[in-house]
Amino acid sequence: MNAKILIHTCCAPCFASPYFHLKDKFRIFGFWFNPNIHPFLEYQKRLKTLQDFSEKENIQMIYKDEYNLEEFLRKAAFRENNRCQSCYYDRLKYAVIVAKKGNFDFFTTTLLYSKFQKHEMIKEICESLAKEYKINFLYQDFREFWKEGIKISKERGMYRQQYCGCIYSERDRFQKENKERY
């Protein structure tokens, strides 16, 4: 039997390609914990898309379905320049705790798929948590599957978000679009 891996999953489009590349090597369990995603309707769209994908592919999922705007804002307010590090750390720490309690052989994250995330920071956080909790971190630069993942998500009609999830990234997206227009 293949080793058991917990994959922290930020959304279905980011999960699809890494899943297809790892499924023959591991027993995959997805893990949803993304309290950073706002507004609530965005959170619901991403969760529903992931649920649909995991059901179609028969992927075992663990959902920590928690929408808590106030908690996120308490952690991010006045720390906007450090918000990504805090956000990554909170979600990945929870994933590592779940992986450790669940006797998983490895953990990883789909955050390593996006070309728009802070890749080296995510890798460093995962390596640090792996050492602290004495669990194996599977590092793979999933960005190499970027175009393939986009193709899969479009072919399957997945909801494809336009920003990382937090209200700050949504603001940045709209500010960028406005600058490009004018």
CATH topology: Rossmann fold
Task: Characterize the largest beta sheet: strand count, sense, and whether it forms a barrel.
Answer: 5 strands, parallel
* Architecture (CATH level 2) name: 3-Layer(aba) Sandwich
Name the structural class: alpha/beta
Specify the CATH homologous superfamily.
Answer: HUPs
Tally of separate helices: 7
Q: Which percent band covers the strand fraction?
A: 5-15%
Strand tally is: 5
What can you tell me about this protein's structure?
- With 182 residues, the chain is of the alpha/beta class.
- The protein has one domain (3-181): 3-Layer(aba) Sandwich (Rossmann fold).
- Helices cover 53% and strands 13% of the residues.
- The chain contains 7 helices and 5 strands.
- The chain has helices at 12-22, 40-57, 69-76, 83-101, 119-133, 146-155, 167-181, and strands at residues 3-8, 26-32, 60-63, 106-109, 136-137.
- Strands 3-2-1-4-5 form a 5-stranded parallel β-sheet, sandwiched between helices.
- Strand 1, helix 1 and strand 2 (26-32) form a beta-alpha-beta unit.
- Helix 1 (12-22) packs parallel to helix 2 (40-57).
- The longest helix is centred in the middle third of the chain and has 19 residues, at 83-101.
- The chain is globular and about 55 Å long.
